[in-house]
Amino acid sequence: MHRVAASAATVKLLIDGEFVESGSAQWRDVVNPATQDVLARVPFATAGEVDAAVASAKEAFKRWRRTPIGTRARIFLKYQQLIREHMGELATILTAEQGKTLPDAEGDVFRGLEVVEHAAAIGNLQLGELANNVASGVDTYTLLQPLGVCAGITPFNFPAMIPLWMFPMAIATGNTFVLKPSEQDPMVTMRLVELALEAGLPKGVLNVVHGGEDVVNAICDHPDIKAVSFVGSTRVGTHVYNRASLAGKRVQCMMGAKNHAVILPDANKEQTLNAMAGAAFGAAGQRCMAASTVVLVGEARGWIPGLVTKARTLKVNAGTEPGTDVGPVISCAARERIEALIASGIEQGATLELDGRRPEVPGFERGNFVGPTIFSGVKPGMRIYDEEIFGPVLVILEAETLDDAIALVNANPNGNGTAVFTQSGAAARRFQEEIDVGQVGINLPIPVPLPMFSFTGSRASKLGDLGPYGKQVVTFYTQTKTVTARWFDDETAGHGVNTTINLK
């Protein structure tokens, strides 16, 4: 049972610059995963409310698309300043509703802040091309023009970072936006939205609706939405991509993963074990880029006790408690699913090296806690390998050689991220060339790029050919228009009719 906190309030919609109370009959509790306290109630927006949000964005686009690029940039300069000033507050909200530790929550906000800073540089990013005098007196140039109303659907695990991946770049390029945050933890997102308005976003440029499947489908189907960005599970992402694409929209979907870290025996052992413990169990494993799968190559197969020892040092507690390494998972349902997958690993013959089920957390006995868990002897075909666990569970496979490890990783359908740990430049280069995964780390377990590059997951982890943020997202949120122009003066006019296709 959830306990309703005295301060629990209703989460508002943002429509046409106003925070409004939903008229919905369907609501969901926002629950602190460490205590089960109800922090707020979030509405599942009605069809009419979604239509109103889109209509507001469509009307605002008429003005916003003509707003000078310098004016847009200055809003995001102000916005990044406001986020910095409110970093502690934002992290506190995030930890309360999502569960991750306060330092990790600040990291969540900061990685989104980096994209806001990138959006403030839009003047250098949204540049067309010019070819002068391609024929006699003829110039050809391109314009990168905004699409119109765009939409974003974000997941629970990064409720600050991923919304900040989406709406700042869409808006900076001249579009307007409708955001649907995760209904499980929308409060920090809404605080970020408040700060965006404070930074100077005009009414209607950013709108927010909450909800579940019906709202997602409404976004996919709405004829006035031109592009949809999604981050979340493979099941929902595939549905969004197919449905929104069928409706004629541009779509980018970043989805599930099974990220492998290949450890060669020449790797620095201490640094590698530390990196793996952090990457596997940080954020309670609830990262689409978590290094959840280790492939030990050759003599590195003897490193299993070292991994277990490192994992045992991690402290499981509420994210607000000092020194916490692993907080709760997002919900009771998530904990039960993770525990069921752990049980399946035992049933299917993997060796449970460390069992993190039902840890004792004094003072937070009602929390959704799963401690670091490690399996060895894992093979393809086991559920703990084939499925994304999205919890603090590390599975270990073994390979004789680097070639065998590369083949194993490439046989997995997912392609979000991978890593290799080695002191051999030749081995690292071979790995980066032959691995069929979109993002590669070398002695770095979570290779999420900074915003001047793009997030480039691949294969089953991504649908759509352009990733969020970086140069690719400018292309995603703009339409390239090519103009070929000739201006006549008195000396060049009057050469008669030309019926050929050539320009002369």
From TrEMBL:
<dbReference type="InterPro" id="IPR016161">
    <property type="entry name" value="Ald_DH/histidinol_DH"/>
</dbReference>
<comment type="similarity">
    <text>Belongs to the aldehyde dehydrogenase family.</text>
</comment>
<dbReference type="Pfam" id="PF00171">
    <property type="entry name" value="Aldedh"/>
</dbReference>
<dbReference type="InterPro" id="IPR016160">
    <property type="entry name" value="Ald_DH_CS_CYS"/>
</dbReference>
<feature type="domain" description="Aldehyde dehydrogenase">
    <location>
        <begin position="19"/>
        <end position="483"/>
    </location>
</feature>
<keyword id="KW-0560">Oxidoreductase</keyword>
<protein>
    <recommendedName>
        <fullName>methylmalonate-semialdehyde dehydrogenase (CoA acylating)</fullName>
        <ecNumber>1.2.1.27</ecNumber>
    </recommendedName>
</protein>
<dbReference type="InterPro" id="IPR010061">
    <property type="entry name" value="MeMal-semiAld_DH"/>
</dbReference>
<keyword id="KW-0520">NAD</keyword>
<dbReference type="InterPro" id="IPR015590">
    <property type="entry name" value="Aldehyde_DH_dom"/>
</dbReference>
<dbReference type="InterPro" id="IPR016162">
    <property type="entry name" value="Ald_DH_N"/>
</dbReference>
<dbReference type="InterPro" id="IPR016163">
    <property type="entry name" value="Ald_DH_C"/>
</dbReference>
